[in-house]
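Lecture 7 notes: from sequence to structure.

We start with a single chain of 218 residues. Read the sequence below before looking at the structure.
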Amino acid sequence: MKYYPVHLDINNRNALVVGGGGVGTRKVRTLLDCGARVTVVSLESSRQLRDLAASGEIVLQERSYQSDDLSGMFLVIGATNDEKLNRQISSDAERLNTLCNIADRPEVCNFILPSIVHRDDLVIAISTSGKSPALAKKLRKALENQFGEEYGTLLRLMGAIRKKLLGQAHEPEAHKPLFEQLLNSDLIGLIQKAEIDKIDSLLLEVLGEGYIFNDLMR
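Now the structure, written as tokens:
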């Protein structure tokens, strides 16, 4: 199977999770972090899901799954131990052309979820095309050690610089050598050591006046 890698915008889109155990709870948290409107259908649910429902962050239906639950949903995640139910969810989703992921069952999914390293807006996704979740986990841990929190700060800084440059009368192509010069410097090391004065000196050298770290990071 060759998967097409893509990052979905699910902000304010309806998402259904079937299953309220540990796996379902983790799926719900990730969906909420990305801004989805989440409904959970499950006969039993975790305390965390009940708390989220009580605070109005999700809709929780404590009952058996019904095919009509997919109505109006952008995507569905099946997180149950019931193989027959998982296949019914997959079949219903296929009929409605709805995005469907069944946890640990890539053969009945039309999309799979990668292992992820998050550093603020930096997202590194690792996929083994469903062949070895254990290898994906091992690679994720290696990347977490390689890419620390400073990379999230670096991305925020680069985004702020890009926005400021685009607000000026410059062609975007003219910015490319500036970004390359910054990234080829020891900027990431300076961020890691919180050497703000040296960062400001570097920004002045490469970009000129008006680029101050603390101002850009506000």
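The chain has three domains: 14-113, 114-147, 150-216. Keep this in mind for problem set 3.
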